[in-house]
Amino acid sequence: MKETIRTVERHGRKEWYFNNKLYRTDGPAIEYSDGSNHWWLNDKRHRLDGPAIEWSNGEKQWWINGKPLPTKEIENWIEENKIDLSTDEGKMAVKMMWS
Fold this sequence. Notes:
The chain is α+β, with helices and mostly antiparallel strands. The chain has helices at residues 71-80, 88-98; strands spanning 5-10, 13-18, 21-22, 30-32, 37-38, 40-41, 44-45, 53-54, 60-64, 67-69. It has one domain (5-98). Strands 1, 2, 3, 4, 5, 8, 9 and 10 form an eight-stranded antiparallel beta sheet that branches.
């Protein structure tokens, strides 16, 4: 079976799919017209370099592999440990600590 990537625009949002699952590695898999963004990988909310949900009102939610994380705790941990989320080491530290 050939792997397919497709983008769908509907109901004021843009969605990315890979083999019929919400999936995107280079940005949010769902972009809403109000500016909200949701990161998904293999049909699960997932993001290592920031919150997986960013609402247009500024609210954020962290998720790894479909599991919600305590936003305040993870953000405090990142700040206290000076984790650089732009690096592979920083992403791995988040994954090891929180997944």
